[in-house]
C-alpha cells in the first residue's frame, strides 16, 4: 500500500546538497555563495579553499557533498560538473538581550541560514 513515489525534482544530469541551520546571516552567506555560482566545480573548490571568509569551510563541505551525491547517487562525471545554483534561505533568528545603561535593554539577533547547492553535468564542447 502507501503512496506512489514522487517524481524527481531535478533533471537527470543534476544533483544537489542542502545544509540547514548554518549559524551566519543569510546576507554574509550569500556573498560566499555568489563567488561559486556558475563556475566549474574544481575552480569553485579552489576558490573556497583560499577564501578568507569564516563560513567558506562550511560552504566547501556542502559543495563536496553535492559532488559526492552526483557521483554516487546519479552516476555523473565529476570532472564535467558545474555549479548551476547556489542559493541561500533564511532560517530562524535567535533573540538575545543585553543590558544597556539606565535600566534599558538592547536586543541582539542571531540569525541562521540554509544553503542549497545544485551541480549539473555539462557536455564538453570539442
UniProtKB/TrEMBL annotation:
GO terms for molecular function: rRNA binding; structural constituent of ribosome. It holds the Pfam family Ribosomal_L22. Keywords: Ribonucleoprotein, Ribosomal protein, RNA-binding, rRNA-binding. The keyword Ribonucleoprotein applies. SUPFAM superfamilies: Ribosomal protein L22 (SSF54843). CDD domains: Ribosomal_L22. GO terms for biological process: translation. One of its GO terms (cellular component) is cytosolic large ribosomal subunit. Belongs to the universal ribosomal protein uL22 family. NCBIfam families: rplV_bact (TIGR01044). Part of the 50S ribosomal subunit. This is Large ribosomal subunit protein uL22. The lineage of its organism: Bacteria, Pseudomonadati, Pseudomonadota, Alphaproteobacteria, Hyphomicrobiales.
Amino acid at each position: 500500500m502507501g503512496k506512489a513515489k514522487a517524481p524527481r525534482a531535478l533533471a537527470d544530469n543534476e544533483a544537489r546538497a542542502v545544509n540547514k541551520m548554518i549559524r551566519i546571516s543569510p546576507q554574509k552567506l550569500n556573498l560566499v555563495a555568489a563567488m561559486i555560482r556558475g563556475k566549474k566545480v574544481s575552480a569553485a573548490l579552489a576558490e573556497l579553499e583560499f577564501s578568507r571568509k569564516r563560513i567558506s569551510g562550511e560552504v566547501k563541505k556542502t559543495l563536496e557533498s553535492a559532488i559526492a551525491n552526483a557521483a554516487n547517487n546519479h552516476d555523473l562525471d565529476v570532472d564535467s560538473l558545474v555549479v548551476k545554483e547556489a542559493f541561500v534561505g533564511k532560517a530562524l533568528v535567535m533573540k538575545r538581550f543585553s543590558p544597556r545603561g539606565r535600566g534599558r535593554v538592547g536586543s541582539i539577533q542571531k540569525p541562521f541560514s540554509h544553503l542549497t547547492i545544485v551541480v549539473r553535468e555539462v557536455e564538453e564542447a570539442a
